[in-house]
Task: inverse folding
């Protein structure tokens, strides 16, 4: 599996493009419209986009991907909470939610297996994803945790925005800490890390 990290232009989230065949890709948090061009530059066609939550800095590229044929997915419990774009002077173009899923129930897209984990706290619709190849011939466990704004390298997401809840955020962090996984963490902002490193050094997980 190849994982490409697309850096934001200005303030926005990291976007990740995942592909098993080098042609078809799943985007996690398409933060800005230039994600579409970034995918094309890598020879990728984005078939699906998955959201960790609905804030403007994570969904600003959804409309552009939809116009190119991608389908957008999120947790079934997500209620399209305010994206806060107008509040921060970054309005978001409308986009549809094409499919939903439940936390704890894995699904496959583009020959990649996704295990969505409901992680409320930063927002009520927060979701992280454990990811591994879906091909049974590719043995091994999960290759990455995409943590959105729940867990960062050395820090955690804020809980003081609409639908945020500090108690639920720490419950979500406890769940992540207990995962039988030590590997790569791909956060919504900042540098990549590992769950083993965060258990050891992140003051919010110790």
Result:
């Amino acid at each position: 599996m190849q994982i490409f990290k697309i850096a934001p232009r200005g303030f926005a989230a990291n976007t990740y493009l995942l592909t098993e065949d080098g042609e078809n890709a799943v985007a996690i948090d398409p933060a800005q419209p230039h994600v579409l061009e970034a995918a094309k530059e890598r020879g990728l066609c984005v078939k699906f986009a998955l959201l960790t939550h609905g804030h403007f800095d994570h969904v600003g590229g959804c409309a552009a991907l939809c116009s190119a044929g991608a389908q957008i997915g999120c947790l079934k419990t997500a209620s399209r909470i305010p994206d806060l774009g107008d509040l921060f002077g970054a309005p978001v173009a409308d986009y549809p939610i094409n499919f939903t899923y439940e936390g704890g129930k894995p699904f496959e897209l583009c020959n990649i297996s996704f295990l969505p984990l409901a992680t409320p706290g930063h927002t009520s619709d927060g979701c992280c994803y454990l990811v591994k190849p879906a091909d049974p011939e590719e043995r091994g466990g999960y290759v990455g945790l995409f943590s959105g704004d729940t867990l960062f390298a050395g820090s955690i997401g804020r809980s003081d925005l609409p639908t945020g809840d500090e108690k639920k955020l720490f419950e979500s962090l406890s769940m992540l800490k207990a995962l039988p996984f030590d590997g790569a963490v791909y956060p919504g902002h900042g540098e990549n890390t590992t769950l083993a490193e965060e258990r050891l050094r992140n003051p919010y997980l110790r």
User: Anything to note?
Assistant: The first strand starts at residue 2 and ends at 6. The chain has one domain: 2-201.
